[in-house]
TrEMBL record:
Keywords: FAD, Flavoprotein, Oxidoreductase. InterPro entries: CO_DH_flav_C, CO_DH_flav_C_dom_sf, Diverse_Substr_Oxidored, FAD-bd_PCMH, FAD-bd_PCMH-like_sf, FAD-bd_PCMH_sub1, FAD-bd_PCMH_sub2, Mopterin_DH_FAD-bd. PANTHER family: XANTHINE DEHYDROGENASE SUBUNIT C-RELATED (PTHR42659:SF2). It comes from Sulfobacillus acidophilus (strain ATCC 700253 / DSM 10332 / NAL). The lineage of its organism: Bacteria, Bacillati, Bacillota, Clostridia, Eubacteriales. SUPFAM superfamilies: CO dehydrogenase flavoprotein C-terminal domain-like, FAD-binding/transporter-associated domain-like. This is Molybdopterin dehydrogenase FAD-binding protein.
Amino acid sequence: MYPYPFRYVRPQTLDEALRWAETDGMRFLAGGQSLLPLLNLHWAEVAGVIDLKSVGHEFNHVQWKAGEIEFGAWLTHHELATLEPLATRCPLIPRAAVHIGHPRIRRRGTVGGALAHGDPLAEWFLAFLTLNASVVTRSRAYPRRVTPIQEWLLGPLMPNLLPGEIVTGVQVSLPERASYGFLEVSRRAGDYAIMAAGVQLIWDASYHQITGCTLAISGANDLPRTFPLISKAVQGQAPGSELWRFVEDAVQKAVDPYADVLASKDYRRHLAGVLARRVCEQATQQREVLTRTT
């Protein structure tokens, strides 16, 4: 199928792109891996698209600060999957990135495009929720606006974007002595996840006790969610099979999943608990690597 007719513009400066964005019905085009299929299937209709190819270099940055990283929205999924420092500093990001679509999609799709699209099953929303990240945006009215990821999705395909605004980057805090886990289940490699889970564990100086925990799951509800009460119960505990079995049981009791053609409610509830336990075990295994290198 072919999309409905629309206007195509390719601005040469960011200011020109932001001016075009103030026109009703105009949408930014980055990698095109989300927007173009919707247009071709007639699931979306726009007045025009603003191709960012000539200005994307302005959002291609990676800035390391004390305890924080900010990376640009123009970076592709593949670039984040292969960014060497992340493999040791925050392995959850490359682990999430390799689950996105197929190699061709990962090499063209951008993190900013995924955030602006707002699909709640996209791996980035779960990953950034686990990391307590923030989304950085820009418009002519607001040169820099920072939104916590918890406030970014107003609903499925409803990102917290103001009129004329563009996603420029993502801020991620990197706590000391943190380990991570990320897993997802799908029917085939490259398919949307039936369910996925991520965890960030923060350890004391001896790596024997958990001092902080963020556990998040997508695919159990309309939007990815965290489990603050379960995370609080984990704090102050030493890791072990008994603790992770508690997490599994608690998550299964806490979720009220939906059913669809891919999975029943009972299967999703079971899967939520199993994935929660396994990502915690994965993060514990990474802790053992950290103790050998410190």
